[in-house]
Amino acid sequence: MSVSAMEDEYTKLVRRMNPPGVLIDNDACEDATIIRVDSENKHGNILEVVQLLTDQNFIVKKGYMTSDGGWFMNVFYVTDREGKKITDTRVIRYLHNSIVTGSCFRPTLMDSVGVRPSKEHTFIELTGIDRPGLLSEVCAVLTDLKCNIVNAEFWTHNTRAAAVVCITDKATGCVIDDPHRLSTIKEIICKVLGVNSDLTSAKMMTSMGVTHTERRLHQMLHADRDYDHVGNSKTPRPQVCLLDCLEKNYTVVMLSSKDRPKLLFDTLCTLTDMQYEVFHGVVHNSGIEAYQEYYIRHVGGRWKMSEAERQCVTQCLEAAIERRDSEGLELELRTKDREGLLLDITRTFRENGVCIRRAEMSIEDGMAVDNFHVTDMLGNAVEAKEVESLCAQICKTSLQVRKNPTALSLKPPKETITSFLQRNCFQSIKSHAWDLLKRLRF
Question: Could you state a single Gene Ontology molecular function term (predicted)?
Fold first, then answer.
């Protein structure tokens, strides 16, 4: 047995001896469901719990995280997308079983990115320079190469673009594993993406398995150094501040930004993948603004950062918040799937000056379920009626304009990040967090 396999078996034994504990309470809070999770303190475990909540489209209103030796306790106040408590017994049972059985935790650091092998699909990962019509061109190439797009997710940020696309062979509906054909797909796709000899070179990778898609997109854009580029966002930038906590030998990370869904996942994903452990944290999301406070150390135990490291962490957290912070109109399309539907939609958008900033596309029971965040070519707002009219010409149905939490007009914050830091950062987070937990009266 290999050393890695022995470590996995030992980890499973420890988990069976000390299983995670979970309590889901709908009575202790008037407007949110409280989820408390106790588990061994291991790198990435907090992120896995948050990832589980995020995958259910839950909104985390408040969160408290604290560790004591080899154990941690997380408490999250969550609602659904409509702001209601989680009352579906099937969802509650799924959450409880996923955490108790440890299926949401990965046994090793290598596996913590959430690898899901697949024998039915081929996954391709794309990175390159963003430009209007790029997604349409990629769809056109894959269609010409007789590939069927099962699902895809596409992000853009600071002149960079990344996508994870799940494809099958159009004729057979099976996985594409012929090396020659995959090589041809890669060659043509890279030409479309625009390969250069410098940092802006496009890349394409193929795989029979893929990480958690949204986490993988963060990793791809981070590896492409999108945080180094200068963006021209029209929305207020997030505020990030790093301080030393000399009393407890932590680096304190303070973040202030406008609130939106999946914000907690995005910041924890970045810290975890940059090899930092969160020992304590407090999160408060008001629906308009969000404050996050983390006490971290590097996985090697080092807590004091150099100035260059501070700057890198600051830039990476800013980028993590902004990648999903779409400025455009959010549109949802549900219609019967047909051959060439996605190509027709993206091409029509391109030909009429509508730019796709972010997209999530999938097929469910023969229905195409697509979400698009769109602007005009200059990044300005697009009239919903204009886009709806264009798509109605293609699919004979109308687009639903979704209420986009990230596009709310924000009032000037009543509290600056400086005053927030002065009010919070000199407290002992450990005693602070435990005091908060005691008030829950579990």
Answer: amino acid binding
